[in-house]
Every structure is written in structure tokens, then in C-alpha cells.
Amino acid sequence: MLASDYYIKCAAEEHFCPHCNTKLSCCQCPPIHVGDGLGWGTEVFFICLNDECKLFVNGWKQCSEQYGHSASCRYALLPGEKDGITMMVGSREAFTGCEIDPDAIREKNARHQTEQEAVAKLDTCVAEKNLAPLLTLLLDESADREARNRAGDLLVALNDPACIDPLRNHAFRTTDLEQKVNMAITAILTANFSKECPKCTEIVKAQAKVCKHCGAEF
Ligand SMILES: [Zn+2]
Ligand SMILES: [Zn+2]
Questions:
Q1: 201 vs 211: CA distance, rounded Å
Q2: Are 114 and 97 in contact (CB under 8 A)?
Q3: Beta strand extents in the chain (DSSP E only)
Q4: Which of 4, 28, 42, 89 has the fewest C-beta atoms under 10 angstroms from its C-beta?
């Protein structure tokens, strides 16, 4: 099972805090070991994040009396376990940022899938005059960098002026890719006997003396 599928499955489970009856939040384990010798040995856990929970409310006093420092406890449960554990927390916010969001995971998976499909089409998109995979990769800043570079390299061979508008409107985070794209756009404009109006940026014929879109004279 994919880790993300496992997260989604766990997030759908319902467990309740025996101290306050609140539904436990499903969290991803932080990459550090917390507490005295508690290794995680699990990727997710369930925790009561209710600030009114008796265990949490009373925990501050107990921890300060027992250990002499500011901390409290939250009820937590490891996957597949029946009995929960008491987890020490140093602040009210501890663990509140690691709640698993199944929708965000699904969205990420869908994005990844689209990216993989686009990568698979890189070898054939020029022959098929299919611009879509190139745009999918070039316009996705989180897509694989090498795949985006390959997509940038294929722009000129594909020679489709329809790429110009979306690429011009995209804010590239890496300058080398942006330069590659800009050079490709220049080559595509030349190959199609056209240029961009410096005033309104619409594409006009290379020989045009007046922009047919905004009336600017060259
Ligand atoms: Zn509780
Ligand atoms: Zn113009």
C-alpha cells in the first residue's frame, strides 16, 4: 500500500478520547523522537487535541509538580492498538500542525498522476503535435525539474504558438528554465513569421508596422 493510501485509510478511522470523548485527530509523526525513549515505530498516530480535555487541563499542574517544568499531557493512540498512551506536550500547539488532511493528500496524488502522464508523453508529443504535456510540466513548479527541462527543450520542435500566452503568463521560479522558455518563444515567433507587440504583447506578423490589436506603431 502506498504511504499516502495508508494515511487516507488511517484518517478515516474513528477513535475517541476516554477522558473527554472527543474524536481523536489523526496526525503524521514528526521526524523527531519525542519524550523519554518513545521511538515512533509508526508513521501516524491518533491524539486528542481538545484543549478542554481533563487530561490536558490537569496535566499542566501535574507536570510542573512532578517534573518542575511547563508541560502537559495529551491522550494518544497508536494504529492497531487498543490502549492509548499519555503523551507529554511542551505547548498547547504541539502536534496541532501535523494533522493529516486526506483531501490535500488526494489532491497531491492527482497532481502527481497528471505529471506522470505528461512525462510519459514527452517522447511522442512532438510527432503528435500535442502541446498539452509540455504545458502541464512547464506550468507546474512542483513537477520534476529534469522533466520540465526536457519539456522546455521540446518547445521549438513542437513549434506551436499556442504555448506563448500561457508561458508568458507563468511566473517561473528558476531563471534557467525561464531563459530556456523565452528563447524557445523567440524561435517559435520567428519560425511563424510573427513577433510580439511591445505595447500589448499580442502576436502580430513580423512585417507589421502597426499592431492590429492596440494600434501601436513599430
Ligand atoms: Zn481528550
Ligand atoms: Zn499591440
A1: 10
A2: no
A3: 25-28, 44-47, 72-77, 85-89, 194-196, 203-205
A4: 42
Summarised one tens digit per residue, pLDDT across range 77-129 is 999 999 999 999 999 999 888 899 999 999 999 999 999 999 999 999 999 99
Measured in residues, the chain has a length of: 218
Amino acid identity, position 74 = R
With a cut of 50, say whether residue 37 has pLDDT above it.
no
User: Is residue 6 within a helix (H) or strand (E), and if so which, with residue range?
Assistant: helix 3-12
Q: Ligand 2: distance of its center to the CA of 159 in Å?
A: 22
What SS3 class is residue 210? strand
Query: The whole model's pTM is what?
Result: 0.68
CA of 131 to the centre of ligand 2 (A): 25
Q: Is the pLDDT reported for residue 21 higher than 80?
A: yes
